Amino acid sequence: MSHKHCLIVDDSDVIRRILKHMLGALQFETSEAGNGQEALDCCRRSMPDAILLDWTMPVVGGIDCLQALRQLPGGEKPVVLYCITENDVLEIFKAMRAGADDILLKPFDRGMLRQKLSSAGLM
After folding, report:
1. Is 16 a residue whose pLDDT tops 80?
2. CATH number of residue 33's parent domain
3. Which residue range forms the structural domain that includes residue 104?
């Protein structure tokens, strides 16, 4: 059985480590990026099945990364779960308009992550 691949994009090493553990328990292969530019570089090399994309990062932030991703060849493919820390309606609207498939409000647990990935057809 081939595992799905998820790119974790967050500027926090701790958050990336936690998400890698959660996704591993859900049978996902993972790769990591510390900012939006690294994420775009990863996607140019190999497009993942899913992306957990943080909203605030240095270099290239979440919205700009998402807009650029959707312009890449194959960039329509990954399910993008946009991860935010506040229930900000304007930020959610901007993310959905930029091409996010769903929103994950931090902090979230493995059950919430599983539900979002399942709803997206990845589990």
Report:
1. yes
2. 3.40.50.2300
3. 4-117
Which long-range CB contacts under 8 A does 2-5 form with residues at least 24 apart?
3/27, 3/28, 3/29, 4/28, 4/29, 4/49, 4/50, 4/122, 4/123, 5/29, 5/30, 5/31, 5/46, 5/48, 5/49, 5/50
Overall domain count for the chain: 1
Residue pLDDT, tens place only, 21-37: 999 999 999 999 999 99
d(CA 38, CA 5) in angstroms, rounded, equals 16
Q: Which two tokens stand for residue 6?
A: 């998820």
Query: Per the confidence metrics, is the pTM higher than 0.90?
Result: yes
